[in-house]
Amino acid sequence: MSSHTVRRYYSRDRDELLALAAYAADGSPTESLWGDPVSEAAVYLMPYLDQEPESTFVAELDGALVGYIVGSLGRGAVGQGAVASEDDRLIRAITEHRVYLRPRALPFFARSARDGLVTALRREPRAGEIDDARWPAHLHINVAAPARGTGLADGLMAAFQTHVRDAGVAGAYLQTLVENERAVRFFGRMGFRAYGETPRVPGLRYRGARVRQQTMVWSARE
After folding, report:
1. What pLDDT does residue 79 have?
2. What are φ and ψ of residue 33, in 5° steps?
3. Where are the alpha helices (DSSP H) in the chain?
């Protein structure tokens, strides 16, 4: 019989977690952005491990890491707020890893520039983080295919929600895609609700079509 558990992240997990991040989202609409796992992890994983590791939890199946949740309690929490904005993390990762010189990444960034121009010309809402004192914390969660349906995703989310409550933080938000219907259903089951508009995400395509960002929020006091 297989054994599975959810626990806090330790620094010894770092290399295994980085390897997991390269494939954990396989099969989802966001399995890769510009096709370079290392620089993508520099945006959506490493800053959290470096700057707020206490907000990271991992899932194990038979002793191997199969999922994780990273996040930040937000700038309003005492002693927190070290994780930079997503825009700042993107700029830093793209510059440091020289992603713009990689042929595989060029189509994504060309589409992003074109999509951004169209959004501006049409005065459409722009995809991005939210800044609201009701939901100052945020998170990113990934569970590899072998662990889906085991309850480990529920455990990861419950661990992070308890962490938010224990810190006295008002709530949290996350962002997924309208087209990622399985994820939207899961987050709804964990107490999150859809919030705000659903702007189109620059550069990203799923099955050849543009996708829309879905922001979801959860109150720790409800």
Report:
1. 46
2. -100, -70
3. 14-21, 37-44, 46-51, 86-96, 106-122, 152-166, 181-189
